[in-house]
Amino acid sequence: MDGAPTAPDVIEDEAESSVEKPLARPPLVLHRRNFSWLTERISGVVEQPAPRWWWVCFTITGTIAMFGLFCLGYQISTGVGTWGLNHPVGWAWDITNFVFWIGIGHAGTLISAILFLLRQKWRTSINRSAEAMTLFAVMCAAIFPGVHVGRVWMAWYLAPIPNAFGIWPNFRSPLMWDVFAVSTYFTVSVLFWYTGLIPDLATLRDRATTKIKKFLFGVFACGWRGSNRNWRHYEMAYLLLAGLATPLVLSVHSVVSFDFATSILPTWHTTIFPPYFVAGAIFGGFAMVLTLLIPARAMFKLHDIITPQHIDKMAKIILLTGSFVTYAYTMEFFTAWYSGNAYERFAFWNRVFGPYWWYWWVGMLFCNTLSPQLFWFRWCRRNIFVVYFVCMCVNAGMWFERFIIIVGGLHRDFIPSSWGMFYPTWVDIWTFVGTLGIFTSLFLLFVRFLPMIAMSEVKITLPEADAHYGSTNGQHPAMSGATERT
Amino acid sequence: MKTPSGHEVYGIGAEYPSAAALYEAAKMVRDAGFKRWDVHSPFPIHGMDEAMGLGKSWLSAVVLAGGISGLLTAALMEFGPSSILYPLVVHGKPTNFMTVPAFFPIMFEMTVLFSAFAAFFAVLIMNGLPRPHHPIFNWDRFSRVTNDGFFIVIEARDPRFTEMEARELLERSGGQHITIVHED
User: Which of A16, A308, A395, B26 is the most buried (most CB within 10 A)?
Assistant: First the structure.
């Protein structure tokens, strides 16, 4: 990274200048960095030898991932009985983990698609890594429903394939919708992510120093040469993929919530679930984005690209979506009381004072409802340690929330004779911990081998990327023309 | 067209110092009446399509076709088995078209899936990618295009192309490092 051509290091402190002009938008890339500085710094992460901390982290996460893979192998070869599932709790950690991971993925698509449609330029610094996070989270999520079917080798029954038995899947089942929603979500996320990567892979190709690198990056860059005739179709494709991913991401967690909402179980059988789940997914996902990006930003010295302003904005989204889920939690209690249904009322009383009481007090109340309230204060949003603390709370809280919804509904059924508790086995625990290892290992590999920030997109946010930069009036010709017209 | 050394000429290229300079130059090349030419930049420049005289991309039409085919595929895939081949009565519900709301989620997902594939393959095919080699890569300065370089290349096969005229135009528009790019 040394010898990178840079603009004069500090011309003026942007923070101060934005205090003088309170309505001026603070720059998205600090210290007046130029195009080639961005290329150097972001490509440098991939091109330089892996730092020692990377090897330490990867060894740890890789080992944990191996434990997870071992547990999966053990579970598949022995049977679902190795998990603590039993009557009446037939869904527990497995589906909790599924919903937890798939929810985390949603933040990536929100950043890459919804914020793109809303013209939020700050997304460019974080969208690539958030999208990668989406893919890895969905991979981890897919493990659980895949494995919990019991006989994994029969999973092809889910696909509508003509077969010798003449049987077909039930397309009206929410579980079937889930199969289509999650697999579509993963496929579309891959396409969107890869489309965005093509120009950056071309950058790495043009900078490659060895033949092998040049060949590999060259193959995946598809011969991209930055032609405007290509950019024209590319931008349209990107816009349409964003437009498609937006309703898709909202549909995925809605469909996940239908798995519960279409049942008759108290606390599951509610119409509030789709928006409640989607808001919770984005809430938990943003916390995970920050959990990964804050260390990555410090390790690779990306402070000029992922600025305090970016973290501030993500914290605000956590506050917003955290308020959505708080509203949903409150409304669930109100509905239970207002319904006059004894089972509903009992289920929610049981949530707060039943055997899993501390899951609610710690997970839902403290982690999800109270901790994000710190983000009302600018000081908290600008303090990395407070932000990290809240994100860790939310990460944990969202797992607890899913556990409360799933096991909380199941362990106290309509008839007291069918009540029971759930106790996880070591396989349950290590499969979940293992997916944390798989997720972080994949993310570490991603930052080593692919540009973790979308270079071609961040460059657009620099003022000199504007076609009218430096012109006398600095206005768009259409606008200046309008004033001349009489 | 060949150079004195016997190389086939692909075109003539010029480098520009900034996105704004490239934008102004593109308008000049457009107004000079060239058709086979292109602008290369590390990122898409807003307004460049108009500056080059290009219309709106028709990629959206391909995606619409993809979406419609996805919707129809899903409808066929769902109602074929569920209503005809293997009618499955669940919760006592009929298997006819009146139960269509329960089939919507999969129809929606398949519509999005097919549209996304259409967008992805259309952007590659319409751009003529993947293309492992291109004559433009013979120009050593051109590797900056994915970093901070801004280029205009006028192709030799343009009917209006003469080396003198093209070179003069690129010089007048502020181009630097004006270079003849070889085919091979």
Answer: B26
